[in-house]
Amino acid sequence: MTITLKNRKGIKMGRTLEQIMESLPEERRKKIEAGAQELLALHELREAAELTQVDLAKLVGLSQSAVSQLEKKGDARVSTLSKYVQAIGGQLELVVKMPNGATVSLRSLKNEENDELKSAS
Q1: Which of 10, 43, 56, 100 could staple 71 via S-S, CB 3.0–4.6 A?
Q2: What values do phi and psi take at 96, rounded to 5?
Q3: Looking at residue 39, what is its pLDDT?
């Protein structure tokens, strides 16, 4: 992976991710590497649950090709991703990290005000 950066004079410099990592202090590099260890791809979660794409597709109600696309592309509706995670025995939790460092867990993506209005009428 090559990242194009500009130096202080505005001259473009191409550096690889490895070069950037090597330039960081050891403590910072270890923190980044430890965080990367925690990240897993969807297919790794499915494989850890000992499910094939076909098995998972049946549990979620999708085609095998849709599961494959989800695992490759990663661009999915939250509801689809939630079903995927539940099918492998997990629970999806969405956490928002704010610029001030605070973290907020989202309870629901449903419009609760509309739900309340519907139940009141």
Answers
A1: 43
A2: -100, 125
A3: 64
Q: Which two tokens stand for residue 50?
A: 């000992």
Cα radius of gyration rounded to whole Å, the chain:
20
Closest CA to 15 of 7, 74, 86, 89: 7
Q: Which two tokens stand for residue 83?
A: 């079903």
Q: What is the model's pLDDT at position 78?
A: 87
Q: How far apart are CA 19 and CA 49, in angstroms?
A: 36
Run of H or E including 32:
helix 26-38
Task: Tell me the CA distances in angstroms from 11 to 5, 23, 24, 84, one per residue in order.
Answer: 8, 19, 21, 45
Paired with 95 in beta bridges are: 105
Q: How many residues does the chain have?
A: 121
CA distances from residue 33 to 18, 27, 29, 38, 39 in whole angstroms, order as listed: 12, 10, 6, 9, 10
* Confidence (pLDDT) at 64: 95
- Which residues of the chain carry a pLDDT beneath 70? 1-17, 35-39, 74, 108-121
